[in-house]
Amino acid sequence: MPKHFLSLLDYTPDDLARTLALAAELKTARRARTATPHATALAGRHVGLLFEKPSLRTRVTFTIGVGELGGSVVDIPSDVMHADREPLHDVARNLERWVDAVVIRTFAQARLTIFTESAPGLRIVNALSDEEHPCQALADMQTLQEHWGSVEGRTIAFVGDGNNVATSLVHAGLMLGAHMRIATPKGYGLPPDVAEVAGRIAMKGAELKQYVDPKEAVKGADAIYTDVWTSMGQEVEYAERSKTFSRYQVNDAMMARAKADALFMHCLPAHRGQEVSDDVMESSASVAFDQAENRLHAQKAMLVALFADKG
Ligand code: CP
Ligand code: NVA
Known about the structure:
By secondary structure, the chain is an alpha/beta fold. It has helices at 13-32, 57-68, 88-95, 110-118, 134-148, 164-175, 192-201, 214-218, 238-244, 252-256, 278-281, 288-307, and strands at 46-51, 72-76, 101-105, 123-126, 155-159, 179-183, 208-211, 223-226, 263-266. The chain has 2 domains: 8-132 and 295-307, CATH 3.40.50.1370; 136-291, CATH 3.40.50.1370. The longest helix is centred in the N-terminal third of the chain and has 20 residues, at 13-32. The chain starts with 12 loop residues before the first helix and ends with a helix. Norvaline is lined by residues 128, 163-165, 227-228, 231-232, 267.
């Protein structure tokens, strides 16, 4: 297993399958309150949490998850990351002397690689960057496996912005053999490198298709996924994006075009009345809070693997 988790592309499809199997095992054990050998997987380990953007789910689930694996969390205030205080590589080299891993939520993905390159003793986890949100995709796949058994051959339609959540969802879905459809307004599609790697990572004949028309993309889909139209860091574009994305709202009419038993997915936070209607958010099709719960189990599984061979 890789030493860092910056991207789903750090995993092979087998790594992903193994992590999801462990996530399911950890969830069952936690619910039954049965002891597992993983309760000491991080014993004596310190994990720093360094978040440059707000977070509810990621922060809480990593805090609880590290504790349940026997490790301890250190909250590092984000103001230490300001360039006029200390260069990022020096922050990394300090942390390397005290902690074993750092879970980082940041802007450019390149800020994560500054950490991996300047502090080789650290394990680094991407807790969301502008480009990717791999921890979210682990929980998303766990959720779909719970509902479907397997995602292989299923069709997942993402409607909205071709953002960090969409990118990691595509990576994970293709690696597990799901057909991925992404519907975005012109100019808001997936970054070109996502389509470029698709052929290499796709298993079992899975395909990535990109659309501008959301109605076409969701036709007959097994799940419809959406996320906010304006991501953290893009707030100045809010008014313009609200206009551009208005026909991309996932509402009852949009859900009606998918399969009758299609699931609705959202990474949260959700903005009801914008990317999703209140009705769909509260409908029985919605698995958004299952996804939120699974952040805990999926990240614990990822952490167990991350520390499995650390001396
Ligand atoms: N989905 C997600 O990452 O939530 P937070 O931003 O609250 O961590
Ligand atoms: N795309 C969103 C996801 C939040 C979990 C953002 O980056 O703000």
